[in-house]
Amino acid sequence: MRTRYIATISLAAMGAGFIVTKYMLPDAGWARMLESGFEAGLVGGIADWFAVTALFRHPFGIPIPHTSLLLKNRNKIVNSLISAMETELLNKDSISRKLSELKLFNGIASGAVRLIGKRKTRLSLVQFAQTSLDRLPLERFSGIIRGFVADYVRKQDIRPIVLKLTDKFAHEGWDEKALDYLLGAGKQWVSKRETEQLLGKLAHSKLEELQVGGFMGFAVQAFIGFMSAEKLGPMVQNMLLSAIRDLSQPGSENRTKLLNEVKSAAEKLHENEALMKQLKQWLENGADSVELERFIHLRLEELRQLLLDKLEEEYSRGGRSVVKGVRYLTDRAKEKEELLQQWERTILDYTVQLIERNHYRIGMLVRDNLDRMDDKSLVEMLEQKIGNDLQWIRVNGAICGFAVGIVLSFF
User: Fold this and answer.
1) Which of 119, 226, 308, 324 has the fewest CB atoms within 10 Å of its CB?
2) How far apart, in whole angstroms, are the C-alpha atoms of residue 300 and residue 303?
């Protein structure tokens, strides 16, 4: 708008100068020279005003031929603009050339190194991590994880899993380890004084419950009367400890038999239909239980607190681990330069293909936006974008016409 006023003032100045020099100044040579200059400047200014105005509208609203050129050629201009965008600005070669100049990973690495070199940046990163971690809705994550577990258990056939576990149990020494663990725990329990007393009382009570007649009954009653619970306890305890020692001895006959029985039972475990069904039901109930979700939530809370403590420690140290981490990644990246170049080429090719497949959408968007504008709005937009430069044509036309008129006055 400002340049339009300047252009209008220049035209008005030429008109005023022409009137003054023609009708108000004496008939002198210098006055005729100025008159010739102002006259030529007035003609040049009017001609350029007509030319510039004819681009956007009809001068004085009169539909003179070959005026309002932009509106008359609206579709041609839009099509040319979209065609230039599709074939020249957004073609595959130009996109590839521009993207290849980016050096994606080198730029990321350089920018990261510069950023983490500032203590303020490192502390901001640590604080952001703390805030984000503290605001995580773990109760929602707990429900999601429990849902995944429950869905997996429902869809999973447990027979292959049980078969694999029993195979490992039977052929990778798990059976012996389990037996040794149980024998060790049993030996520790049997060796206790309280266990000795318990075994004595239990053995004595069971002997008293025996119902045997005849001479055998008389012998049993005599034995019961002679052996008290205090005497039976050490005897039973020693027998159990002796059996445990025998089963703990590698290569013993009883140990071998027991392990063979255990292996045989384990190998046939997956064939037990009732047991498999019961195990599957137990797993499904456990996966759907609130207790599992609570357990997951507690573990996540523990993990979050552990990470928050580590981040607080890292904040007090000025974020040194951030520097170490970035340097470690950049060093590893330098060692894998060929791999990174391959990734970069892959990303570049994908980006080019993506833009090439969808760049027509940009043209559609441009066309749609232009179609939504009425003629008045379109003209106002164009005048705002290019009108200022065009108005200087009017100014230059007036000035050049004035100069040419001065020159011509000498002939």
Assistant:
1) 226
2) 5
Using one digit for the tens of pLDDT, what is the confidence trace for 41-53?
Answer: 888 888 877 777 7
Residue 242 has pLDDT above 70, yes or no: yes
Task: Say if CB 132 and CB 308 are below 8 A apart.
Answer: no
Specify whether the CB–CB gap between 276 and 159 falls below 8 A: yes
Instruction: Kindly tell me the sign of the dihedral angle through the C-alpha atoms of 167, 172, 173, 177.
Output: negative
Residue 278 has pLDDT above 90, yes or no: no
CA distance 360 to 86: 7
Q: Got the DSSP string for 63-107?
A: --TT-SHHHHTHHHHHHHHHHHIIIIIS-HHHHHHHHHTT-HHHH
Residues ≥6 apart with Cβ < 8 Å to 326: 112, 113, 116
CA distance 83 to 271: 72
Cβ-count burial 76-86 (b if 16+ within 10 Å, e if not): ebbeeebeebe
Query: Residue 301's pLDDT is what?
Result: 92
Instruction: Say if residues 41 and 68 touch (Cβ distance below 8 Å).
Output: no
* pLDDT tens-digit map of 285-316: 888 888 888 999 999 999 999 999 988 988 88
Q: How many CA atoms lie within 13 A of 74 on its CB side?
A: 17
Contact status, residue 68 vs residue 54, Cβ threshold 8 Å: yes
Question: CA-CA distance, 290 to 296, in Å (whole number)?
Answer: 10
Structure tokens at 352: 């080019």
